[in-house]
Design a protein that fits this description.
CATH architecture: 3-Layer(aba) Sandwich
CATH superfamily: Glycerol-3-phosphate (1)-acyltransferase
Strand content: 5-15%
Oligomer: single chain
Largest sheet: 5 strands, mixed
Mean pLDDT: 82
Length: 350
């Protein structure tokens, strides 16, 4: 019996390795063909996770991560309990996180799993991730295939400068990029609505990219356009990550990951969409900004609150500055955008 189980285990392991190699070869081929510029056939919509890859990752990484579990902390479980109650009442739950590290891709899910919230981590969790990671990264483009996912085009992959009128070819390419991005993001909006109606939890990083200075930055106000807030029972769940940058800094090689870094997930009180819209309207009128921008900043201040109360003020950047002391005339990397560009700027990760 022992010999049979050993052979079965080895056979399954070999099959997983073969599928991994096949997936990696496919990744290399598609990446070489695509490059950085958006293509007309970019992936769009919802993608089901690969069962084989998921269990391969669990077999390889979970024992190692389990040994380091005492370094990974969940703070604010009472607020997570509120979110679960709201879900039972029919609310769609939307977790929001700050984004400073490549490790942010898996740490929220891992911390929830290690603290007993395995249904959220394994069954409800959905990656909403930018194309740079979705099909252009040597590690994550394979790793994320193990879980359910929705690709989007973040602001960092959308061209900001419109070519001169005389540059017809440049303008054609520019408009093609906007069209490709809009197709992906429109499909993401539809897929998100469908999956949230099934009570899935899409983990979103409003900043759209890793903050290289390690501090929270203001997201583009177009972030909220990915969600249909009106007429839906929806609750945002602010989550602040601390220590993930110490685990794996942006652009650092995968071999530099410090698995023993102290990483914490700080969960704050959920914010109902109807309350967010009402407060955003008040803030917009008070500070002369758009309701979308006010709404995004309300959410980010809530993410920062969990970090601040646990002595991580250094991570909060502009969100250490009160509303009334902010210079709202400065827009977050969106100056000079046309309406056409604004329509396709959404959240993501890169």
């Amino acid at each position: 019996m022992t010999v049979f189980l050993t052979l079965m285990f080895l056979g399954v392991g070999l099959l997983l390795v073969v599928r991994w190699i096949t997936a990696f070869q496919e990744y290399v081929r598609t990446t070489e063909e695509q490059g950085e510029a958006l293509q007309e056939d970019e992936p769009a919509g919802f993608y089901k996770g690969n069962w084989f890859l998921w269990h391969a990752f669990k077999m390889v990484f979970l024992p190692w991560l389990w040994l380091h579990r005492h370094h990974y902390h969940l703070i604010g479980q009472e607020n997570l309990a509120v979110a679960l109650r709201l879900q039972r009442e029919g609310y769609r739950i939307v977790p929001l996180l700050n984004h400073v590290s490549s490790a942010d891709v898996w740490m929220p899910q891992l911390i929830l799993w290690l603290n007993g919230f395995r249904t959220i981590a394994e069954k409800w969790f959905i990656y909403v991730i930018g194309l740079k990671f979705f099909n252009r990264h040597p590690f994550f483009s394979i790793a994320i295939r193990c879980k359910d996912r929705i690709p989007i085009v973040p602001p960092t992959m959308i061209p900001r400068e419109r070519p001169a009128n005389g540059d017809k070819e440049g303008r054609r390419l520019f408009l093609d990029q906007l069209r490709f991005a809009r197709r992906v993001n429109d499909a993401a909006k539809v897929a998100l609505a469908e999956k949230m109606d099934e009570h899935r939890w899409p983990f979103l990083a409003p900043e759209g990219t890793r903050q290289r200075n390690g501090k929270m930055g203001e997201p583009d106000e177009g972030f909220l356009t990915i969600l249909d807030l009106k007429g839906r029972k929806m609750a945002f769940l602010p989550m602040g990550l601390s220590g993930s940058r110490d685990m794996w800094a942006p652009e650092a090689p995968i071999g530099t990951i410090d698995w023993g870094a102290e990483v914490s997930l700080h969960i704050e009180t959920p914010i109902l969409a109807e309350n967010l819209l009402a407060e955003a309207a008040e803030k917009a009128a008070a500070f002369g900004i758009s309701p979308n921008r006010a709404g995004v900043n309300i959410l980010m201040y809530a993410v920062a609150a969990g970090l601040q109360k646990n002595d991580h003020v250094n991570l909060c950047g502009i969100y250490n500055t009160p509303w009334e002391k902010r210079d709202w005339s400065k827009k977050p990397g969106s100056e000079g955008e046309t309406r056409e560009e604004k329509e396709v700027v959404l959240a993501g990760g890169s």
